[in-house]
Protein 1
Amino acid sequence: RDLYVTGVQTCALPISQALLKQGPLPGNSLAPVKGKSWEAGLKGELVDGRLNATFSMFHVERTGEGVKDTRYPSTNLEWSGNCCYLPQGKVTSRGVDVEVGGQLRPGWQVAAGYTYATTRNATENKPFSSITPRHLFKLSTAYTLPGGFSRWKVGGSAHIQSKHHVDDTLYDANWEPIRPYSYVQGGYAVWNAMVQYRIDPRWTLALNVNNVFDRVYYQTVGSASGGNFYGTPRNAMLTLRGKF
């Protein structure tokens, strides 16, 4: 069994705030967000070494996020940035990640993972990223049939996650608020299936069917002006693969 603990890291995160201006107009761009991260975890083997497992916990703090400066009127200029903001925001993100994978029995491969994540605006004491699902579960398996059917392999996978949403406000041409709105994608599951035939030691033929039940869902939710994208509908792919 192995135990690993990572140290504290302090760095400028790759999140530019060049388009957020500090007043008064025309304003100067805010400095990049800075942050610290902590992570600790365990990794080891299960079922007599047939499975590998990892468990980790993480905590991230970001400081210097731009927050509205109420001393100045709001402006939204496409090329010169938005005004006016102060670098006073603090955001925290924390959660756990678990992964298990390996061979349960001869010919039977499995992999499963679960992630719990929550983000919070510590400055305003409210959730920060509502588009990040709190729960995410992934499962995949493949099984080579025994005996005279050993040329065949069947399998499947699943992507299951909790809801994500966007809460925002509609504005008029003068950047005055009209009304709030909310776009919500409830929790959903997408299932995939696979069947493979080994023609000979060098050639295999595989059929993959994705989103088997043709689930209609928003993979991402954005705003009233865009960024709302459907997930890929049911589709199939036939692949011939050779090794030389």
Protein 2
Amino acid sequence: KSFIPLIMGFGCNVPAVMASRTIESRQSRIITVLVTSLMSCSARLPVYILIAGTFFPQHAGLVLFGLYALGVLLAFLLAKLFRRVLFKSEDLPFVMELPPYRIPMARAVGIHMWDKAREYLHKMGSVILVASVIIWALGYYPREEVMSRAEEQIAQVQQQSTLSEGERSEQVAEIERQAHMEQQEGSYLGRIGQTVQPVLAPLGFDWKLSVALVAGLPAKEVVVSSLSVIYTGNEAVDEDSEDFAVGSSALSRQMRQEKDPVTGEPLYTPLIAICFLIFVLIYIPCVATVVAVSKELNSGWWGLFVVVYTCVLAWIVAYLARLIGLLII
């Protein structure tokens, strides 16, 4: 009975957690809920496509398959570990009687779909909205000083009569891009990212990747838009375009060309990209999933446990991946 919720986790972890209600054994239900977040939901896919398409354009499919397989393997190992550590004895034997199968009635299916969809939107829609607004506010403010300085520079460029219209437009666009990047670095979200960056430094992550990870707490796809704002000053990243898939977008070029200010070497290597993908796969699920875990298990402590153990596990696995990669290289 745990198989169906885990398979649903590849689409979205929230309904997967809610689907665990069919498991009679409370111990099996708790273990299923705890490992559901390791199933790679569709919200993580844009991050995978961006990073894999940028640093592994010839083997992006293999990288994606490896990430999904790693999530399944970790879920299996963690389920075994939780069974032995948290629940040493089974609370009830596994007995499942199969009912006679009949063709479902369209009216009954429609009623059930409507009830479950309404419950999902009612419980999680408000949570995602509030969390997204908070992350947006943290990334948007403060901005007065940076933007006022950018407006002055743009005014000076507009007054230069020696420049052609095309040159003037290019300089204005560059000023706006630099202003967006500077504002993102000095925003409250940027300061939070720089605060947690020392913890992520052993994994090879700089403050920009740290900010993207913090911004991805409400929903993992926000990681892509956060990186886009930091590097290009533009939130619009077309995740369905061919350029995006093969890593030839503006964001991909910026990440490939980023240099270490001290050594002059590329700041992001394929090894760091792999560590980043592993971290995104494992670390804190979206806020809606954490809330769903707390509500389904009737305890906020289980939600906190998911947050803590996924962060610790993500750091350990990503760090081991970097150590192994450095030894091989």
